[in-house]
Design brief:
The protein is mainly α and 241 residues long. 76% of the residues lie in helices and 0% in strands.
């Protein structure tokens, strides 16, 4: 669309606690807050979409059919694994919270767990203990990812500027990834025990590599914080309790 006029920028920026110049140049010279926030949203949504796609297709939706077909598991055994995995993951999450690791390390660690879960589950031959380990890692990764991930998103945008629209659109990405992953699960089940079954790890690997590059280079694709944006975010952080 056409660039915002100064009056438009002032009107839209007022609800975001931004002056006209701040709104127009929030992400850098001539990169408005609207443009920057959409760019951040797309990048973050793509990451969680790819992670959930791999995990749900390769592990979560495939676990029950594979263990029943290959090892004759009962529904009670499957439910026990899921319950134990959730309890262990919650305990680990509390430990991580107690250690107060930086959000970026928590996020990349959780993303790595997504990839490790898919690989542990899908690498041949089919192994009972690796199937269980893959599910455990998958549950852990889902519990660990979203708190630091959403915190980093808020830090880049500014906590007071994370609107309901942005939060809703961000939450749609894992839902779409889960739905598509579940749809693709039958293909993964049919390839269980074959090297072709590991192909489903590629989306998660792409997300992990992208996150690692971005975090190591200081958000190079999103643009490092400009002096203007840094001062706005620092001032906002000082006002937060």
């Amino acid at each position: 669309g056409s660039p915002l006029s100064e009056a438009d920028a002032l009107g839209e920026g007022a609800g975001l606690a931004l002056c006209g110049d701040c709104f127009d140049n929030f992400g850098g010279a001539k990169k408005s807050f609207r443009h920057y926030s959409r760019q951040v949203l797309v990048c973050f949504s793509l990451v969680v979409f790819l992670l959930e796609l791999s995990l749900n297709a390769g592990v979560i939706a495939s676990f029950q059919p594979v263990v029943v077909e290959h090892f004759g598991w009962t529904s009670s055994a499957i439910a026990c694994v899921n319950s134990v995995g959730a309890l262990l993951s919650s305990a680990i999450l509390l430990l991580v919270a107690h250690l107060r690791l930086p959000e970026k390390f928590q996020a990349i660690g959780a993303a790595g767990c997504y990839l490790l879960a898919v690989l542990t589950f899908s690498i041949p031959p089919v192994s009972e203990w690796r199937l269980v380990a893959g599910v455990m890692l998958g549950i852990l990764s889902q519990i660990m990812l979203y708190p630091p991930f959403e915190a980093i998103f808020a830090q880049l945008i500014g906590r007071t500027r994370v609107t309901t629209e942005l939060a809703t659109l961000l939450s749609l990405a894992p839902a779409v990834g889960t739905a598509l992953g579940t749809f693709l699960a039958p293909a993964c089940i049919a390839n269980a025990g074959l090297w072709t079954g590991t192909i489903i790890a590629l989306p998660a690997a792409t997300a992990v590599v992208g996150m690692a590059v971005e975090l190591s280079l200081g958000w190079c694709l999103l643009g490092p914080p400009t002096q203007l944006k840094r001062s706005l975010l620092d001032a906002e952080g000082q006002r937060s309790p």
